[in-house]
């Protein structure tokens, strides 16, 4: 499977290019920790999603559009997530994962021979959702497999800190386990307490 060379910032910008030709980027030493600097994420455009048949109110009605800080907090605090990818024959594939939301990117790890990694190598388009169906956050984005040691070290620190584990660096050896970054293109969320007046869509520039 051919790969795309990555430059600093490519994880943030490569979504349309990867989806267009069906290849996934394997990012090497050219991407540095600077790609994860807190505060570097651009704020997305916000609107009410189209949800016909549910009586959804206008963007200024109900509790109004949710602030991005709401979705960001839900993505950061969730313990488990669902990752949905597409099999080569078009069938969807869904699996729960641990994950870390960090400065506008969702990170998770998986065995390189797992079905979801095979799927993402063939088609990087994916969906990630939080486990809370009452106040869900759904991320539609593109995935990139990361091989840069500094970024992998950062992900390991995030995982050990969040889940109070002591996983060693050897666990994320790129020859054994893939480290995956999912960059959002669109995020949708809503609150159970105001189903008709809270649905919000955030759209990110590619």
Descriptive report:
The structure is a single chain. The chain is about 20% helix and about 30% strand. With about 210 residues, it is an alpha+beta fold. The protein has a single domain (about 10-35, about 60-205), classed as Pnp Oxidase, Chain A (Roll), CATH 2.30.110. Strands 1, 2, 3, 4, 5, 6, 7, 8, 9 and 10 form a ten-stranded mixed beta sheet that branches.
Shape: globular
**So, CATH architecture?**
Roll
Backbone structural class: alpha+beta
Number of strands: 10
β-strand percent reads 25-35%
Q: How far is the first residue's CA from the last residue's CA?
A: 24 Å
Poorly predicted runs are 1-39
CATH class, please?
Answer: Mainly Beta
Q: What is the count of DSSP helices, taking H or I runs of 4+ residues?
A: 5
Determine the CATH superfamily: Electron Transport, Fmn-binding Protein, Chain A
The residue-averaged pLDDT reads 84
The helix fraction, in percent, is 10-25%
The largest β sheet comes out as: 10 strands, mixed
Spell out the helices and strands N to C: HHEEHEEEEHEEHEE
Number of domains: 1
List its salient traits:
alpha+beta; Pnp Oxidase, Chain A; 5 helices; globular
Short note summarizing the structure:
This protein is α+β, with helices and mostly antiparallel strands.
What is the element layout, followed by pairings?
Layout: H1 10-13, H2 15-21, E1 26-27, E2 45-47, H3 68-77, E3 80-86, E4 92-98, E5 100-102, E6 105-111, H4 115-122, E7 125-130, E8 137-146, H5 149-163, E9 177-189, E10 200-203
């Amino acid at each position: 499977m051919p790969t795309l060379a990555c430059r600093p910032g490519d994880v943030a910008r490569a979504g349309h290019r990867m989806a267009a030709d069906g290849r996934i980027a394997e990012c090497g030493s050219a991407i540095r920790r600077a790609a994860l600097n807190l505060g570097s994420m651009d704020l997305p455009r916000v609107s009410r999603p189209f949800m016909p048949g549910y009586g959804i109110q206008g963007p200024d009605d109900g509790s109004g559009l949710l602030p991005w800080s709401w979705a960001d907090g839900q993505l950061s605090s969730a313990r488990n997530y669902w990752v949905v990818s597409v099999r080569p024959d078009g069938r969807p594939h869904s699996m729960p994962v641990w994950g870390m939301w960090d400065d506008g990117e969702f990170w998770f790890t998986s065995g390189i021979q797992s079905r979801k990694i095979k799927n993402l190598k063939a088609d990087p388009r994916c969906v990630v959702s939080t486990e809370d169906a009452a106040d869900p956050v759904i991320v539609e984005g593109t995935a990139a497999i990361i091989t840069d040691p500094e970024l992998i070290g950062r992900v390991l620190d995030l995982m050990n800190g969040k889940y109070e584990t002591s996983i060693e660096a050897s666990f994320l050896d790129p020859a054994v386990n893939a480290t995956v970054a999912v960059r959002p293109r669109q995020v949708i969320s809503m609150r159970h307490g105001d189903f008709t007046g809270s649905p919000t869509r955030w759209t990110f520039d590619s």
